[in-house]
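User: For this week's homework, look closely at the record that follows, marking any run of repeated tokens, and judge whether sequence predicts the tokens.
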Amino acid sequence: MTYGHQRWAIAAYWPKTPPRLFWDADYAKATKFGGIVAPEDFNPFAWAVPTGEESALPFKLPGLIGGMILNGGTEDTFFTRMRPGDVISSKLRLASWEERELRSGVKLFSKYETEWHNQNDDLIKRRVGTTIFYTLENDHVAQLVTDAVFNAEHAGPGIPGHHRQGGELRPLPKTGDGA
């Protein structure tokens, strides 16, 4: 962690005052941790370092153009606590994948595992998550989803994404029967 230890506490607990364990050195020294530690759910990767490049997925999704992605949930397990001065690295791996035939069509369930380690290679955190990839095979259902996104964008603040230059939302082709 290259920034002040107070920031991690403020980030995790804002707008409430964080527990003293995360910012008061004298108090933290008397705890079982022997010093200041970060909240377990603090994410040191939440603030991107400017690179001058546009953000994008670190991988390509062949065959999923026009596809949908659904968060299937995550489970975190915590190990060693982060401390001021730690350098945290992250490794992501695909643990498994499985195609499942559901009523609404074929879905690809992919499980991934992310591990965070400090500069001593101590395991900080392991996250196991599921991402579900799917396409909408029924044009009528796909149009309903597009319409829902369109309406939701109009209900929110700012300029709707489909009104901006190069917006991702596109009208779907009409079916032959007008449905």
Remarks:
- The mean pLDDT is 76.
- The chain has three helices and four strands.
- The domain at 61-158 is CATH 3.10.129.10 (Thiol Ester Dehydrase; Chain A).
